[in-house]
Write a structure and sequence with these properties.
This protein is of the alpha+beta class and about 475 residues long. About 35% of the residues lie in helices and about 10% in strands.
Length: about 475
């Protein structure tokens, strides 16, 4: 009989970080507990990759415990494993692609620098799909990541490893990135929180500074207070970003206080099960209705309504593909035969980008501007919009992507994620919070979209919803996993 899995020694990241700062718990104790759980569970889930040997991680924890209390940052001594798209000094940034496995980073990018400056200890990376493409975490380098609520299911992606690490209590906090739902979708599938901030809220680290700007990094956690803590550290102005927003990260600690009764009664909330016309699994649709009812019971004025997002998926497909032209140039430096080295969906999407015309690019930007104007008018009437975080519950890990929903064919590997992709086009803040479960016990998240640059208000709304519903308190059963 195998030994029992050691329980996590933290209840939540916010309390743990305060205890590490004050010295009431040691970084060595936390690191030992984290590695005990990683050693017991990660071989099954495959959430964390490129891990430091435990003795090296423990040596870093010893160094952290020697730091005077007065000099300790808000993430002091906290083990973290940034997504495998984040450059961390001394680790390879592979993007799940064998051809990038030798890319040992000489320095941290700005996101990692902010976490390290706050006292985090980096122990590896969280797994992701190849190049971050597709909301299902698998790649040829590290393999599949599996959902802790059902090992036959995907955790989603592309921040799937991060979502699983949180759900299984392998780590207290995580980060991710989101182009077409890569923070929101895995959060939905793993019953955690994934927050896509307003464009310009996070440090800019790659791609185009202006044109086609849809990707952003963001925090992941098991609840809203932990999300607010992480966001307060990694958000904030970045002088290298032409779209940067000026609010300092510490501003978002105000989200530790949810909306009060008076504020909730002034709240105007729209909800839509299908964002107008999308194919949505019936259990997902019911979860959105239940979420709307929960907000109404809190005192908010709730109306079934959706913004006009006509053309948003076309904009998303064009601008996503345009960005992949940069990936093609990088792959050419590895091998002229790079197409045979990558998955079919990545090859299709890159080739789509290479075939784009200048007129298509300009028209997509013009239409995106029209869509933004439309949705700002919608948010003149509403403070938030509740929609699905994913159009389906977690699906079989043997599938590459969802090709059909309710009998409706999904033409490409992106279309089943439209409920997130269309919101990405707007640049508005959006958060996935636990919304309930299917009859088979699989998590379903709900996506709450906020006003333009309304990140703080959105976090406070989500906090009120979370406190009232408590869906996030239901964790996976891990006792039989070894």
């Amino acid at each position: 009989m195998s030994d029992p899995i050691p329980a996590p020694i933290w209840q939540d990241a916010l309390s743990l970080c305060r205890d590490l700062q004050s010295g009431s718990i040691s970084a060595q104790a936390v690191m030992c507990n984290v590695y005990d759980r990683i050693n017991a569970l990660n071989p099954t889930f495959n959430a964390l990759v490129d891990l430091l040997p435990q003795d090296q991680a423990m040596a870093l924890a010893v160094e952290a415990d020697a730091v005077p209390i007065a000099a300790r940052g808000p993430l002091h001594g906290l083990p973290m494993a940034p997504k495998d798209a984040v450059a961390v000094k001394g680790f390879a940034t592979t993007w799940g692609f064998p051809g990038f496995a030798g890319n040992i980073e000489p320095s941290d990018d700005e996101l990692a620098r902010r976490m390290r400056a706050a006292g985090a200890i980096f122990i590896g990376h969280s797994n992701m799909p190849e190049f971050g493409l597709g909301s299902h975490t698998f790649n040829e380098l590290y393999g599949n990541t599996y959902n802790p609520y059902d090992l036959s299911k995907t955790p989603g992606g592309s921040s799937g490893g991060a979502a699983v690490a949180l759900a299984a209590d392998l780590l207290p906090l995580a980060d991710g990135s989101d182009l077409g739902g890569s923070l929101r979708n895995p959060a939905s599938f793993c019953n955690v929180v994934g927050f896509r901030p307003s464009m310009g809220r996070m440090p800019f680290n790659r791609g185009f500074g202006w044109f086609g700007r849809m990707v952003t990094t963001g925090p992941m956690a098991k609840n809203i207070p932990d999300t607010a803590l992480m966001f307060s550290i990694i958000a904030g102005p970045d002088r290298s970003d032409p779209l940067t927003l000026s609010d300092p990260g510490i501003t978002f600690l105000d989200a530790l206080t949810p909306l009060d009764v008076k504020e909730l009664k002034r709240l105007r909330v729209g909800f839509s099960t299908d964002l107008g016309s999308l194919a949505i699994d019936p259990e997902v649709a019911q979860t959105v209705r239940d979420a709307a009812s929960s907000m109404e019971s809190l005192g908010a004025h709730v109306v079934e309504a959706a913004p006009n997002l006509d053309g948003a998926m076309n904009v998303f497909q064009v601008q996503r593909a345009a960005g992949l032209r940069l990936l093609a140039k990088r792959l050419e430096t590895i091998s002229p035969d790079w197409r045979g080295m990558i998955k079919d969906t990545a090859q299709w999407n890159i080739d789509k980008g290479l075939a784009l015309t200048a007129d298509e690019l300009m028209q997509s930007e013009l239409l995106r501007t029209v869509i933004y104007r439309r949705i700002t008018h919608f948010f003149d009437e509403y403070d938030a919009l509740i929609i699905p975080s994913a159009q389906v519950p977690p699906f079989d890990a043997t599938l590459d992507w969802v090709s059909e929903i309710n009998g409706v064919n999904m033409p490409t590997y992106i279309d089943w994620m439209a409920v997130c992709c269309m919101i990405s086009v707007t640049g508005l803040p959006a958060i996935s919070v636990p919304g309930g479960f299917t009859q088979n016990g699989l998590p379903i998240g709900v996506q709450i979209v906020g006003k333009p640059r309304g990140d703080l208000e959105l976090l406070r709304i989500a906090h009120a919803f979370e406190a009232a519903t408590e869906h996030g308190l239901r964790g996976p059963s891990l006792s039989a996993i070894r």
